[in-house]
Amino acid sequence: MLYHLLYPLADEYSVFNVFQYLTFRTGGAVMTALIISFVFGPAFIRWLKSKQAEGQPIREDGPQSHILTKQGTPTMGGFLILLAVSISTLLWADLSNEYVWAVLLVTIGFGSIGFIDDYRKVTQRSTDGLSGRMKLLLQFAIAIGAVLWIMGTGPEELQGDLAVPFFKDFMIHLGWFYLAFGAFVIVGASNAVNLTDGLDGLAIVPVMIAAASFGLIAYLVGNALFADYLQLHFVLGTGELAVFCGALMGAGLGFLWFNAPPAMVFMGDTGSLSLGGALGAIAVATKHEIVLAIIGGLFVLEAVSVIVQVASFKLTGKRVFRMAPIHHHYEQLGWAEQTIVIRFWIIAVVLAMIGLATLKLR
Length: 362
Hints:
2% strand; mainly alpha; two-stranded antiparallel sheet; 15 helices; 2 strands
């Protein structure tokens, strides 16, 4: 909005020329989202507490310590993240850019699914919200629509192609099968982040790390000069997603202020589903789907641990981990919650550096 309102005035007032620069608007999005979180966060949390007297329902089959330490903490804090991200993006992004709207569609759509799920859990005082089948159905419907939009917006020569990291010119042509693949990336990322969100601050920091990484990737892929220098595929318009990533980082920092141990609020499915979906959509738009699996390797690890645990128990009757997702396994081994969280943050940083290294190692 500010780009459309103020940049046209640059001919008369040179100070407004800064609005043409992605770096300036990305920084503005970071600060705006952070300020929104700080300003509205305390009142929003007090309102949540007034509406959720008993807080988020705690799973009885989870770690027993959570029944004592996390009882009474309200959920649905992800709405604060959605608010900050949406307002910041609408203020600072070029709203004629279709990639921005496609990613916003996924973010708000998945956030709405999570909101309904959280609302049912809180009002029914149960850990069962929407059925897993219904959530997946709604997620795939939104994801398929977003992938179709992105495919129609992107360059024709890259439609249906999957880029492979470490190879400068190697592309796997999937054709219309890419539609299913792209939807799987978005839905998979959404649910992987959802599974990671089990300890105070565990999910939000890796999300911010991934957002920062993909903000850089979007900026480079959307710039013809940088893309050519790094031998990346150039996707016109994706640079604007750096502004969205900046908003995501600012909103994440603001939420972490209230989610740091001991958490004052949980993001719930409202936050985790929307954040993961956003990362997946950005990866699809920038043609860096495989790199997302590297940068977001922590989320992949959490999801795989659940899949392995369920498959092993159904096939052999035995469990591979003491509890899944894997962060609960380490809790059962006696690791302190803060130790698990910080070590997982370190893993997320290392994976992000490996993922970003693929931009040059080709």
